[in-house]
Amino acid sequence: MSLNEKIEKALRDYLPDNDCLEKNLISSMEYSLTAGGKRIRPVLVLEFCRLCGGNIDDAMPLACAVEMIHTYSLVHDDLPCMDNDDFRRGKPSNHKVYGEDIALLCGDALQALAFKTATSNITPDNAYNVARAVNNLAAYCGADGMVGGQVIDLENEGKASGIEILKEMDSKKTGAIIKSACEMGCIMAGASDEEIASAAEFGESIGLAFQIQDDILDVTADQGRLGKPVGSDKENEKSTYVTLLGLDKCREMVACLTESAINSLSTFKGDVTALKQLALSLAKRDY
Amino acid sequence: MSLNEKIEKALRDYLPDNDCLEKNLISSMEYSLTAGGKRIRPVLVLEFCRLCGGNIDDAMPLACAVEMIHTYSLVHDDLPCMDNDDFRRGKPSNHKVYGEDIALLCGDALQALAFKTATSNITPDNAYNVARAVNNLAAYCGADGMVGGQVIDLENEGKASGIEILKEMDSKKTGAIIKSACEMGCIMAGASDEEIASAAEFGESIGLAFQIQDDILDVTADQGRLGKPVGSDKENEKSTYVTLLGLDKCREMVACLTESAINSLSTFKGDVTALKQLALSLAKRDY
To answer: Which of A82, A109, A141 lies closest to B142 in CB terms?
Structure first.
C-alpha cells in the first residue's frame, strides 16, 4: 500500500461507527474527510517521523489528526456566515448537502475527533511525545494560529491590505498547521530540538510557497482542474500576493522559498528525497 | 482563595494574549469564558482528583479544558443556524456582540484552547495520565458524545420524541462531558478502574438529574433569576421530561438520581462531603 493509500484507509478507520441516532452527522464527517485533497499535512507528519528514525505507524494517529483539523476548517470556512462557498474540491460543500446546522456540528465533531485520534494509541512509553504533539497541534490550530489567521482574513476583507498583514495572515491561516505537521512528525520520533526547528523552517517555507502558488493559480488555472471558480480573489476584492507583487515576482518567490525549504533539510542525516520531491511538486502544481 | 476563585483565575490566565491582529477574537473568547456560570464541570474534575489523592493544581488544566469545551458548545448552540438565542446567562449571546463569523471562530478557538490547556503542563511523569484524560474528553465531546447529542436534539425538534430518545440525547448532549469531568479527575490522580467507574456513575446520575431539573425550571423558574426566557421549551414544541412525565414524577426522579449519585461515592475512601453537597445543591437549584 502506498503512503497515501495508508492515510486514506486510516482516516476512514478512525471515523465513528454510523449505527447510531446521529448517523447524519457521521455521514457528513465522512463526506468531507474522504473528499480527496492532496493529504499534504499527513504526508509531512509521516515523512518527518521516518526521517528522524521513527516508525510511521506510530505517527499515523497524528497524521490523521492534522488532516481532520484541516478538513473541519474547510467545512466551517465554506459556511454562509464565512466565505459562503457552494463548492469545495469540485463537489457541493458540506452545508449544501447536509444543511448549515449539521455542517457546523460536523466541523466541531471533526476537531474533537482529531484530538481523540491523536491520543488513540497511547502507551506509558509514547505518552510524553503524544502529549507534546497534541499541545503543538492545539496551539497551532487555535487563536494564535489557524483560527487567528481566519480572523485576520475576515477583518481585512475588501480592504487593501499590505504585504505584512498578508504574510501574518497566511503564516497563521495556512502555515501554522503545515508547520505543526512537520514538527509533530519529529516530536513523535523523539527528534532533537535542532531537528524540530529545521522541520519548522521547512514547514514555514513550503506553507508560504503554497499560499503564493494558490494566489497564482487563482489567476492562471483551469477552473475544472482547480475544482473552484478561478478569479474569486479579484471578485472578492482581496489583496493577494499577485495583486500586490505581480505574477513574475510571485513565481520567483515560490522558487526561492522552495529552495530554502530544501536547504533546511540539510540538518537531517536520513534520506530527504521524499520531502524534497514534495516541496518541488507543490511549487509546480497546477491545481 | 476558594476553589471557584482559583478556577476563575486559571481560566483567565489560560486565555491568549490579546496584543495581536486578532484581538477581537480573543475578546470574544474572554466574553463567553468569563460570563459566569456555575463552573460545575471544573469543580467535578478538581474534587474527584482530590478525592482520589491527587493534587488539585495538577488537575487545573483539565478542569479549565472541560469548561472551555462547555463554553464553546454554548456559543455555537446560540448561533442563528442552531437555537438562534439572543441571550445567554442574562447577557447578549456571543454572536449578538461579535457577529456570527467571529462567534463561529470563537467556538472553534475555544475548543482548540481546551486541548492546548489540557496539555499545557506535561512532564514525562504525568504525560500518560494527561494523554488518557485528553482522549477521554475528546471522545465525550465529539460525535459519540456532546456533538452527537446536539444532532439528536436538532433532528427531533418539533417532534413528539419518546422518553428513550430524550434520555439518549441528554446523556450525550449534557451528560457526556459531566461524566468526562468526573472521570478525568480520577484519571489525573491515578485512580483505580473501580474508582473511575464509580465517578462515571456519579456523573451520569447528576447529569440526568441536572437536565430534568432544567426542564422543571423551564416551567417554574423566575425569568430574571434564570437569565433566559421561561417557557421556551413549550414555545419550541420540544418534548421534555416535564411534558412527557409531568412535574411530580420529574421531581421524584431528580431526588432519586441524586440519591443514587451519592450512593456511588461509597467506593471512595476519602472525604466525599464536597461532592455530596454539590449533588444536593444541583437538585435544589432554582436557576
So the answer is: A109
